[in-house]
# Entry
Amino acid sequence: MDHPQLKELVGEASHALARLDTRRLEELALCCQALNRDLSPANSATRADDARQAREAAGEMAAFAGIMEATRANLNVMKRLRELRTGRLEYGGEQIRHWTGSESGNGNH
Amino acid sequence: MGTISSAFDMISGALNADQSALSIVANNVANANTPGYTAETPNWRQNDPIQINGVQYGDGVTETGATSMRDSVLSARLDQQQQLASASGARLTALDSVQALFTPDSGSSSSTAGDIGNDVTSFFSSFSSLEAQPTNNSLREEVLTSASTLAGDISNAAASLSSQRSALDQEASGVTSQVNSLTSSIAQLNQQIQSTSPNADAGTLEDQRQEDLSQLSQLIGINQVKTENNGLAVTTTSGQLLVSESSSFQLTSGSVNGATHFFVGTTDITSQLSAGGGELGGYLTARDQDIPNALTSLDQLAYGISTSVNQLNNTGSDLTGNTGTAANPLYIFNEPTQVAGSALGMAVTMTDPSQIAAAGAGMGTGDNSNAVAIAALGNESLMGVSNGSTPTGFFSNFVSTLGATVSGVQAENTAQNASVTQLQTQNSALTEVNLNDEAAAMSTLESSYQAASQVFTMLNTLIASALNLGDQTTVA
# Structure
């Protein structure tokens, strides 16, 4: 593979996800697509190096997987909070009651 | 009965409410850079209707205070992740020190444990050398030198591990006063909040309490339980009460079998704190789990080598034709009485190289059969170890397992810190900006997750392909 070491690439993806840097992650996705294309069974000269890099990236992949898992959990928490807050705005709250109440009066609010 | 002044009251009430809201906005701006400050939004309360000549007019509004846009669920999640990140961070620091002990000397760096794996190989090789010339004194001295290096490195490693354990013990002990200071502060804030603002948000006071909770989360694992009138109870993750309303329960420490233990009242909660998280959890896990595991492995290695080598040397003939007796055993190493403590006590007791029993009993001093047998111990199962590893294999497994543990905790810590970073970003969005911006922040979280999922899938494929291509048996 004629590219930065695989473990550096995985580490970069972990950092981008921690920073929620979507643009960088999209760039890395394109980079990975290119790498997958370049990985050729016919190129026996690089096979051993590719395998070495893959083995060395195992720890970084474990960290990346952990960050993915944590992000998914965080996303779930945020979604639930969003639902709660949106629901409160739509169906309750002092402000809504105020507007509803004033409609029954003379509109002077 | 309504009057003109009532109408003015209604209007001025609205103006006052606006003014009050402006104050809150100004407060937000002034505190924009204050750590832990939570932006506030005004609360509007509907006033009683005003009756003028039997007709109900409007109801006006009154500003009733401010509700900090904090969200207890998100704060609790952030605190929880901080607890985990702090625990793995503290444990990782300790594990790095342990691992450094078993990293062979290189360049300017040096390890007090030297290179135990190499020492083991050299020791048994010295007996292989002695096989060829069993009466050669310099080769006999070489055996004792290599034995001394091996014993010294193992003993130094055990001593260093014990020192690291003591240092962790002190670190853990030091956390107690910080925890007590924070729980006292939270209890006082509880009292202030409950007395001044039992039914509404207490703004700055709640920010202070949240800041204290955040700091406490970094020290120990806690659970938070909201109580009546804006009160808060704080327990350890195992449920031991630390703060209830305006009361705090002090954490105390005392020595139990040479290690600091932690108590609330008379209850020993050390093991609960160890599993609970925070820095203290990390320190205790390293002190009570990681370092003892490393010490146990070293003890097994030292015990196995010492007893098996001593046993064989004691039954052979030394250079003067003597064999060991109960009164005068021919021991090369200190003979351990039990596995525990073998590493720390490992030392070479033999000072005269002629006492090395290279010959079999009664075989004459030129015989080498016992030297062959002792050299062969290097390729046999280590005595007292159930998995059948050779001494070098056992040590290699120990170092590999330690490395895997460090690597696992490193990955865990990276993920937890990343999670904390994400949550802090989300928390900022929640407390500092409006609902639309909050939605945008969540959208960023979602799109980042989706993009990362793509990257992860492709990397996974890439790695699997690279491994498969590099594995000749698979390719064939």
Remarks:
- The CA atoms of residues 457 and 463 of chain B lie 10 Å apart.
- Chain B touches chain A through 64 residues (CB under 8 Å).
